């Protein structure tokens, strides 16, 4: 999908006097860093319901992209992202979220295999003891490069016979455990993570339009094509066809345009 073609379709929708779902159009028209700054601010205001959005931004984007978001946040709200996250959270979840948005990760490919084994064991103990001290797990997730963390996650699976996220969540999971789960999934394979977000957004009764908009708008000029392919492999239906059945009106036209579906 060519950007100029999408823009022309958006302008056509706006020129037709459409008022519904203007927020989705507005967010798409923002620069990526400014868009994520807005998403982060909304997430903070939503409390525990928005923690996963903070984690997405911190764990999917590169170190330089996260830095750009923090600058955009400061320019827009006259406060630091770290300050607002810290002010609105407590305990382990505060340590994790502040650590994630503060981190400037090494982006190289170097891996320390011995460290991967050691920290896989540390994570195993932290996850097993759900009510224990999570400082070491937080340290690992907020300081290591994504390449190093992938090696650690792979070593975890090899040594402990299951994916690191396999037993992390249950009905009694805390906000911290949910955020940790999201961080690991975003670092491990963010495209698979986003595919599941989309799947959950449109299944069942009602559509989570905030989640649908967030993923489609933020990934439209990045890797939405790959996410669509994953969705088809997982669900045997094209994402645009599934979405078309769940939403309507000019919002539907806008989202389907970003998904690349022509009239």
Provide a quick synopsis of the model:
It is built from 15 helices and no strands. By secondary structure, it is mainly α. The longest helix is centred in the C-terminal third of the chain and has 28 residues.
Characterize the structure shown.
This protein is mainly α and 263 residues long. The protein has a domain at 1-30 and 190-263: Annexin V, domain 1, CATH 1.10.220.10. Helix content is 71%, strand content 0%. The chain contains 15 helices and no strands. It has helices spanning 3-15, 22-29, 32-45, 51-60, 63-77, 81-87, 91-102, 113-128, 135-143, 146-160, 175-202, 209-219, 224-235, 239-244, 249-258. Helix 4 (51-60) crosses helix 11, helix 6 (81-87) packs antiparallel against helix 7 and helix 11 (175-202) crosses helix 13. The longest helix has 28 residues, at 175-202. The radius of gyration is 19 Å and the shape is globular. The two termini are 14 Å apart. Keywords: Annexin, Calcium, Calcium/phospholipid-binding, Metal-binding, Repeat. One of its GO terms (molecular function) is calcium-dependent phospholipid binding. Belongs to the annexin family. Ca(2+) binds at residues 202, 206, 244, 246.
């Amino acid at each position: 999908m060519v950007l100029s073609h999408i823009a022309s379709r958006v302008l056509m929708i706006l020129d037709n006097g459409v008022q519904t779902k203007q927020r989705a159009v507005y967010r798409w028209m923002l620069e990526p860093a400014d868009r994520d700054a807005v998403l982060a601010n909304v997430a903070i205001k939503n409390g525990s319901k928005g923690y996963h959005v903070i984690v997405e931004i911190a764990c999917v984007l590169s170190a330089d992209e996260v830095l750009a978001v923090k600058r955009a946040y400061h320019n827009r709200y006259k406060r630091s992202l770290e300050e607002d996250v810290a002010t609105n959270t407590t305990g382990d979840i505060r340590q994790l979220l502040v650590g994630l948005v503060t981190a400037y990760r090494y982006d190289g490919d170097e891996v320390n295999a011995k460290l991967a084994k050691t920290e896989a064991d540390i994570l195993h103990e932290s996850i097993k003891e759900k009510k224990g001290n999570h400082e070491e797990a937080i340290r690992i997730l907020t300081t290591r490069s994504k390449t190093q963390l992938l090696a650690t996650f792979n070593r975890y699976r090899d040594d402990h016979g299951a994916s690191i996220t396999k037993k992390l969540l249950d009905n009694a999971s805390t906000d911290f455990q949910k955020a940790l789960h999201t961080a690991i999934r975003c670092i491990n394979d963010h495209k698979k993570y986003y595919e599941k977000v989309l799947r959950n957004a449109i299944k069942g009764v009602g559509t989570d339009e905030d989640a649908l908009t967030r993923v489609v708008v933020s990934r439209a000029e990045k890797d939405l094509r790959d996410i669509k392919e994953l969705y088809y492999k997982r669900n045997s239906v094209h994402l645009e066809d599934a979405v078309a059945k769940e939403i309507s009106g000019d919002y539907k036209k806008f989202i389907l345009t970003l998904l690349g579906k022509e009239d």
